[in-house]
Hints:
InterPro entries: WG_beta_rep. The chain is mainly β. It is built from four helices and 24 strands. Strands 4, 5, 6, 7, 8 and 9 form a six-stranded antiparallel sheet that branches.
Amino acid sequence: xxxxxxxxxxxxxxxxxxxxxxxxxxxxxxxxxxxxxxxxxxxxxxxxxxxxxxxxxxxxxxxxxxxxxxxxxxxxxxxxxxxxxxxxxxxxxxxxxxxxxxxxxxxxxxxxxxxxxxxxxxxxxxxxxxxxxxxxxxxxxxxxxxxxxxxxxxxxxxxxxxxxxxxxxxxxxxxxxxxxxxxxxxxxxxxxxxxxxxxxxxxxxxxxxxxxxxxxxxxxxxxxxxxxxxxxxxxxxxxxxxxxxxxxxxxxxxxxxxxxxxxxxxxxxxxxxxxxxxxxxxxxxxxxxxx
Length: 291
């Protein structure tokens, strides 16, 4: 389901990229270029990143693509172009919108009877997979559940603690944790790489990140907190509570900076705060701060 939807969306995404980025100077927002040079002087109460939209041309009867940013001034919202001229916000349409609403609706709709039938089928399939484990493996654990069908992997409990085993009974993740969660991040449109997070129920302990093969690659001293639409970026805290942004595909921090507050990456940009100062960063870790 998820893969189908992402493929539908990705097929409508075009390639324009923003050349201007919002910055705050004093109490007002303007826009800088890639070199942090002011292009649109600070004049707005609030500014959001530029993104690509499509605008319908009634004369040519087709869509053209424009870059526009939403801004606020004196409690009024408006949209501007990169030359700071106003654009009618009502005419802007997201480029990811598709006309194939009927296909989307048919994917998402199902009757209650159909849902229950699918649930029964899934449960029967799960029990069939578990039954393929040898009896001596099953007897080692208090409970066994299917964690992943394709591999397959099993979530097991022993002495009240959770672990992961494969179909031969080999421990992929030792049964030492209060919980184990499955997560994933997008590697290409519609394709995702799974990984596991295991840790305590308390907020003070360490939450450990494992590859699908059980290799430990990250310690995080706060619960999972994704800040990216496709799961690629997450907030990671050290023992002292200092928080950075970690790239799961790259297996490294996007920069060496720490932040006090985070929002959410939208169109490649995120509003953050450090030492009381608000500014945007991009997914590469570049900070946009007015000079």
